[in-house]
Predict the structure of Tyrosinase copper-binding domain-containing protein.
Amino acid sequence: MFTDELVGNGMGQVINGPFRDWFVPRMNGMLRRNIGRRASLVRPWIADQIMYSQNISSHNQIVTVGGNRVSIEGEHNGVHVWVGEVMMDILSAPQDGVFWLHHTYVDYLWERFRQKLVRLGRNPEIDYPDPTNGQHPGHNGSDPMPIFYSQYHYIWTNQRGYSNLLLNFYEYADHPTCGNGCGGNTKFLYCPNNNTNNASTRCVSRTAERDTVPEEALGQFGGRNLSEFDFKNGTATSSINNTNSLGEMAAALEGPLSKSAWQFTSKLKDNRLN
């Protein structure tokens, strides 16, 4: 993913791909990343529980308040930290194009969760989480959405954001699996271990044939030493079936997950084959 063909390099200043040489006003500098240093990507087993488990049938069960282990917000936060640099700052994060791709996926998870509620006989429009009990202004159902406050504060509350009316504006395709031919994109994705017998198996990304860290971007890794990475054979990522990913290499430096799943500790792993 972090190559010039997709979102650009993942270490140092982003100098290739569609978001190359973007200036970030808040940082007063260029767009930078530091992938795999901390936290984790969205964990497949958490995503599956949110989308499919009948034991998780209310928004109250997927919010961080209350100590829920399965949290869509926690999984969201971890990716911000995993990408690093600009994505770690809540005000500057939207100035990395990865932000919008990531949030689209989070919204996809939520939409699949909402569809599950309908199948279970619940109305997602009124299933607003209520553990805040008025203690967190801005997060309660009756609180106005800040971006719409000036003109529509009597209409666009958080609760209104759950309206099925918004479904008229979008429709999501299923995520790439072995059963749907990796969503028709076999240039960048493949079915792991030729596991075509299990239609629900997630497709994973193909190995990059060149560095995810262009030579021109080397030198500044936010304090990281190049010796931490394996650049054998001219690639910064190797087959996930045989060698560690960048994220797994960084796991040796990882303590408790930062901002993601704060209720427990875990080493950073990229379990894309699960």
